[in-house]
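Notebook, bench 3.
Goal today: get a predicted structure for Dipeptide/oligopeptide/nickel ABC transporter ATP-binding protein from Cytobacillus kochii so we can plan the truncation constructs. The sequence was checked against the plasmid map this morning, with no discrepancies at the termini. Length recorded as 257 residues. Pasting the sequence as submitted so the record is complete.
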Amino acid sequence: MSADLLRINSLKKSFYRSSSLQTKVLSDVSFSMKEGEIVGLIGASGAGKSTIGRIISGLETADSGKILFAGDDLTKMKTKVRRQLAKDIQMVFQDPYEALSSRMKIHEIVGESLHILQIEKGNLEQRTQLVKEALRSVNLDPDYYMNRYPHELSGGERQRVGLARAFVCKPKLILADEPTSMLDTSLRLDLIRLMKRMNQQEGTSYLFITHDIALTRDFCDRLIVLKNGEIVETGETLDVIMNPVHPYTKTLIEALL
Ligand code: ADP
Ligand code: MG
């Protein structure tokens, strides 16, 4: 952990409901992440967490502010930067159905980004090897799962496919937006263990978005607490959980007890 992987400066975002009515969703959000770091972004529903994730991944644009990824300004979005963004930043979503097209077989789903990014272009065998490796890294036997469809899998298996799809590009950063909230407790912990293993083996960083502070305890190095589009507290995970400073953080923790 040394250089900044991601640096967000004064991110602002409003949504316009009508010509006269606008909702401020992010008021002045700044934070940074080191290479290899796992950061939990926590806050109640509606706080603006997903909007931050969507802006970083390029699915949404900010009104103002700067996003530096490995030194490159993503808000400028030059072609080179955009391609790098597509390879180095992957997203994992809450609902596996959202990201997993049901008409595609699992190996097509996992290999799709390799295809888009033209990694191993033309070399089907090498691409298949990368897909198999990604499936193995989430404890799914490729021989069985490669040719299945999403509807033939359980929710936990589908979410692991979503993770394999992110892992296959060997991204530097994974934006994981409530990836465990559709799963029961033991499957939640399984998924977190898989994400942690990829962090230890490959140095993958995570921005782990969740409303459930309990999940961050054994996973995140550091927490950022977001309330109504503003960061109200940051600190090392255990410090924040054991000694929350802001009243809002206290209420998030009390809700666990
Ligand atoms: P969280 O992920 O913390 O629950 P979100 O970032 O999804 O919060 O949403 C924050 C606020 O922004 C909510 O009030 C939501 O209704 C609003 N919002 C999010 N996306 C849009 C959109 N595309 N258009 C209008 N309002 C939006
Ligand atoms: Mg959300």
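Residues 96-170 form one domain. The first helix runs from residue 49 to 57.
Flagging this for group meeting.
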